[in-house]
Amino acid sequence: MAIRIIVDSSADIEEDYARDHGIQIIPMTITFGNEEFAEGVDITRTEFFQRLVETDELPRTSQIPPMVFQDIFQEIVTAGDTAVVITLSSHISGTYQSACIAAAPFKESVFVVDSENATIGERLLAERAWALREEGLSAADIAYCLDQEKKDIRLVASLDTLEYLHRGGRISGAAAAIGGLLSIKPVVGVVDGDVVVLGKARGSKASRNMVFEEIEKAGGVDLTRPIWVAYSGLSDKTARKYIADSLAIATEKGLISSPDEIEMPLTLVGAVIGTHVGPGGVAFAFFARE
Question: Which burial class, exposed, middle or buried, applies to 146 when counting CB atoms under 10 A from its CB (0-12, 13-18, 19+)?
């Protein structure tokens, strides 16, 4: 009897990584005008951002419907397997609710976890599920551990603008107005499953400093556990600068002996998250040390 680990595509896990670690990705849908794309199947991350910057029309995203989950869960149970399903925060998408509806007839075999996070924050939880499976835990025990440990995962990000979050209905117009001023860079985070504006900074350097300040306010980084960095757009230059600066700060503070001591993998966010943040964003996801 195998334990399946399933995530929606907004976890921003690469196909090769998922294949190597036995993680199944269910694609969410993005719509440009009348064209629908399954994320990661019909459109790559780079193709999405190329199209996003070339059009004035904001794409739309759709939650995964219950029937998609139902077919997958039925196959799992028929095979005699169990599953842990990790979804985008229920405060952001209805995908968690869809998974719960579909899992209702299979309560002894399928366990659904609301990540209460997004993108690489959700990814950290999926990677933790894989590690727990490697340790030999049951699906039920993995889900229980994830529900406990997800409270320690933080996500802090700098965006170029709040326009995309506002147009996608993820924040209010009043909050979006913060980022509408010249050279103002909003800093956001995921708090209790919601996207929250943490502050504003004038210019890239001030924004970077604010991100580091907010990371400390959020409990600081547990350097013994995985860290992920993500960027949105067609260039990773800004994200690599963030990584270099954060490692330099950690070295100066004596938290690490050298920048080579800590691994901070970098990934490009996918189409679902990219729709809501736009290009020019940089995010850190980590386990808080406090």
Answer: buried
Q: Domain of 225: which CATH number?
A: 3.30.1180.10
* Total domains present in the chain: 2
Give the strand pairing for 35-38 and 184-191. unpaired
- The pLDDT of residue 271: 96
Q: Mark which of 133, 150, 167 sits at the end of a domain.
A: 150
What are the residues facing 195 on neighbouring strands?
190
Q: Kindly state whether residues 133 and 161 are assigned to the same domain.
A: no
Residue type, 164: Y
Contact (CB, 8 A) for 86 and 11: yes
Structure confidence by residue, pLDDT tens digits, 3-15:
999 999 999 999 9
Mean pLDDT of the region 175-202: 79
For residue 18, give the CATH number of its domain: 3.40.50.10170
To the nearest whole number, what is the mean pLDDT of the chain? 93
Tell me: pLDDT of 174 over 80.
Answer: no
